[in-house]
Amino acid sequence: MKSYRSWTYVFYSILWSSREVESVPDLTKKTNLTRIDDGLLSVLGLQDTRTLKSSWTLTVNDQCLYEFVYKFEHSDSFPIGDKDFEGTCSYGTKDDPVKPKIASDGVPYLKSRRFWERFPDYIWATMGFNHLSVDWLPCGRRPAGYKQPQYDFSFYRVEPEYRAQNMVCKLYDESFMTVVPFEEYCSTEQDDVNGMNFFIVPGAMINRDPVVNMPFDFTHRHQTFGPIPHEGLRAWDESKVPETTKDWNDLPVFMSSYAGKLAMWQAHVPYKFINGKKRQFHSLAQRYFETTVQTMPDTWAVKYDERDGKIYFTIVGKANLCHGDFERAEKAGGGPPIFSNFEYQPIESAESEETLNDDIEDENPISGSFTSIASATILQLVMMAIALNQSL
User: Fold this and answer.
1) Number of domain units in the chain
2) 255: domain range?
């Protein structure tokens, strides 16, 4: 018992050490906030894994790199809307509005289906993310070419209770700002601290334009599409937004801040990447500006297997807990997660060069254990090679 308590102390010391003292609260620290009722957390969606038949694994190798893999299936109950807010996603115009279309699940097409899961503390300590929200958007969301069916994978550095209680604001109520039904944005005029915190942007001491801990070209939009309740003030690279839905052929990342702190990392995956009769693999990478948070994903990928419909979303980054410390923390936390049996099959964790080309189907994928550190290392090397190639 003595050794267990000793390790518990070391674990939490590692978790909360190296945090800088600033005038604004560090949102990643544990607080005395009492966890609120599940009913109040409903604003974040459903705390559910069965609908997506999902599971995940986290491994850390000897180079102190983590690989997080989220496996799930697209649910047949999810409606698929039309692109560009037309047809089933139509809401009319400002002068001639129409009622949003209702899908077969009884929910409007224009409303997102949200599912989230809280991570164990040792996962939070390793990646810096407290929980994950997986959102299905039948109609997508603005701006421009993102108006098509998609998944959003949102990794939050703050607790769900904090998002539900604190990350709230006074909304725009002008019709020209809220044209699309179920889109909510914070007004630039706020009356209390919670609302004002949306517009405190982390910045560098010398150059105030780039945002600390985000890619250099990321910018905030303080009005539409930017400040969203329970998400924070979002930022992205405006120059890479596709003009039309047919031009969207990558895995863009949006990020958000709140009260001057990094709050969320969010990847967008178009539905066309994870369905059909052909195997698909897509990846992307990025670097960050003046990082004080070292655990942000630098490489991510999505794989779709047409044989069973399984989808694998992967992120790779630098871990706070290296290999040995991670394994001890995982053991102290009760061991690897145990999931319901969703007709589980091992992940194919490495891709040949052919699978990186969407036009060539890999007939002989290299397979490995879903929890194998060796296979994790192989995938990391492949993905890093992709990232290096893109940076040249």
Assistant:
1) 1
2) 2-391
